[in-house]
Amino acid sequence: MKYILYLFILLLLNCASPKEEVPVSFSIIPQPDSVVTHGGSFELDEQIEIAASSEDAQKVAQFLQEFLTVNEFNSSLLAEADSEGDIFLEISPESNIPKEGYQMVIGDSGVKILASSGAGLFYGIQSFMQIVQTAGNTLPLAEIIDQPRFSYRGMHLDVGRHMFPVDFIKKYIDMMAHFKYNTFHWHLTEDQGWRIEIKQYPKLQEVAAYRNETVVGHASTSTRDSAKYDGKRYGGYYTQEEAKEVVAYATERFITVIPEIELPGHSKAALTAYPDLGCTNGPYETAKTWGVFEDIYCAGKEETFEFLENVFDEVLPLFPSNYVHIGGDEAPKTQWEKCPHCQKRMSEEGLADEHELQSYFVQRMEKYLNNKGKTIIGWDEILEGGLAPNAVVMSWRGEEGGIEAAKQNHDVIMTPVDWCYLDYYQADPKTEPLAIGGMTTVEEVYSYEPIPSQLSTEEAKHILGAQCNLWTEYITTSDYAEYMVYPRAIAMSEVLWSPKGTKNYEGFIDRINDIQPLLDEWDVNYAKHIFKEEE
Ligand code: ACM
Ligand code: ZN
């Protein structure tokens, strides 16, 4: 009885003095590591002074100033100031804040964002923008401590099947940066078009950058010949100057650009320009339809390696990234099986089959690129025939390639089709524009866990992160690209950034509805399925 009385008193006490919990009254995506709010608020004036601790902090501060201006606040930026101003931004390399992390305090007399790097400060500012968007001028007093779960947070864009203006690529980068992605994987070469200027090979611009026409509607490998075509020449390419412009733009936003030059497959456009690089010497025609093609670079001819090395010699200086993507996926071995050059190479090198020949090809390119200070990334087919010694594997056909690579002590980026392919339908195909197939809803993307349960804690350290991919066979316009990417890529941002175990889909839906006006302000053509009806 005494015990029950004691429990009763405890219960009463608990009810009488609830913890000082004020509901969080702003929304942030991706959800931060920790948010504590207090009673009270800080009022943002019409006139806001932003102080930045250094030149680097000032550069980042400009993004905040621009945002405030668009949102009708007047603000001034104080140079190299101490902790004064309504918003104080500080980069302190000595602080023990993780590299891309930040701490934010909204106090009685102002806001302070502290980071140990420009990237961390930049991410703090992205969070602050969403706070202002969702809380208005009256900011609840709060402390946020934040850092990413994964070091690789990627988005891919295929420009081989369809091309997009440089301004669109910049907008794609803006959105990535806002949702705290840090890597843009630029898929630059394909069967249907070569999209990066290589000065030493003018026919890549004159020939490989164009296809004579494009298939209309769905066409599989077996129906290619009977399919309908639009009769319109299609193509173009990015100049080296444009590539540099994109890289500079991305760098300012703490995004690394990784170029992909596909080998040995998905190379029909290059073979059309330089048929001697194929096993049969052609003639070839830049692909007009989608899928996988048997015409790939000849692995027996020395000219192939000379060409690719020269191409990389022009590509690498444009992209300071440590990584370079060499493709490696979907390379049928049909021609190699019949080609005297390829067969001679196999016997000279003691290779047991054509998979080992592909491995020879990739390893030889890896050696060349390693010597230039680069680490290669390849699609998971590079596991077949033996993995190149230092390669990073991008696991796309499922999680198996990633699991296998991690078990072999190789770093891995997860992009399994079922969660990460944004060319898949996001809702009932009957109600959606034409897409390649599949079905991955926002909720499925959100549910993704990049660390496969089969890995030990040690092996799991090889999972650098994950990436959404946008293949553009059916994505003919910038608007359609955005429709496929958002909000699914926003859901993935939380998979990549927020601490494991904190995801909550209902909460995500509420928060994305709260930040919806930002997407509108930035004129993003996002899909509306998960947004509440407008009043
Ligand atoms: C791929 O989707 N072929 C990597
Ligand atoms: Zn060959």
Could you walk me through the main structural features you see in this protein, from its secondary elements to its overall organization?
By secondary structure, the protein is of the alpha/beta class. The protein folds into two domains: 2-146, Chitobiase/beta-hexosaminidase domain 2-like (Chitobiase, domain 2, 2-Layer Sandwich), CATH 3.30.379; 152-264 and 281-299 and 318-334 and 372-521, Glycosidases (TIM Barrel, Alpha-Beta Barrel). It contains 18 helices and 21 strands. It has helices at residues 2-16, 55-70, 118-135, 166-178, 202-208, 240-252, 268-273, 302-315, 334-338, 340-349, 354-371, 400-407, 417-420, 442-446, 457-460, 478-485, 488-497, 505-521, and strands spanning 34-43, 47-52, 74-78, 87-91, 102-107, 110-115, 138-146, 152-158, 183-187, 189-190, 193-194, 210-211, 234-235, 256-263, 323-327, 375-379, 392-395, 412-414, 424-425, 437-439, 463-468. Strands 8-9-14-15-16-17-18-21 form an eight-stranded parallel beta barrel, surrounded by four helices. Strands 1-7-5-6-4-2-3 form a seven-stranded mixed β-sheet, with helices on one face. A two-stranded antiparallel sheet has the order 10-11. The longest helix is centred in the first third of the chain and has 18 residues, at 118-135. It is elongated, with a radius of gyration of 26 Å. The chain binds acetamide and zinc ion.
